[in-house]
Amino acid sequence: MEDAGANWIHVDVMDGHFVPNITLGPQIVEVIRKATRLTVDVHLMIETPERYIADFASAGAEYISVHQEACPHLHAVVQDIRRQNVKPSVALNPATPLVMVEPILSDLDMLLIMSVNPGFGGQQFIEASLEKLRAARRLKQQHGLSFLIEVDGGVKAHNCGTVAAAGAEVFVIGTGIFATADYRATIAEIRRIVDGQADAAA
User: Fold this and answer.
1) 51-58, long-range: CB within 8 Å, 24+ apart, which pairs?
2) Is 55 a catalytic residue?
């Protein structure tokens, strides 16, 4: 991915409880950190994520996303992430309204809008996510905030322009790259489309 032109490595951590799938833990993140110079963005799709913040921070995560739905004491978890010298991010499932994180937006370095239900790759982009992206951008502009707006799920070359126009700034793309024959060409095409949207908005 680094050779193909990606900017970040997004690592999905799943526990078989918060989502049905099971993936990997801090040890693999540590190996990834040693293998690349790219930003390592860790997405914790797990229950009680506060138990594992220090482990993933020590493993080399530069961003850690926790789910609002998994954190009854969200502000405390975000503060703990920052105390570990990691940039805090909060993720929202498709059915979770943006209002649930409005009180904490000023504490975040990134907001992750899930555009599929978390757990498995290859799902179709949920179109209602576009309005949530637009609303997040409006809140960011209205309050002069600096958090990045990340989108995850179903993003491909054919829809990345629409997603960028709605407000996404960081694009998590799995099968939209890995299911294509030429990763470098796919990433270059996505970047061309997204940069074109940014130029149009400037």
Assistant:
1) 52/26, 53/77, 53/80, 53/81, 53/84, 53/86, 54/84, 55/25, 55/26, 56/13, 56/26, 56/29, 56/86, 57/81, 57/84, 57/85, 57/86, 58/26, 58/30
2) no
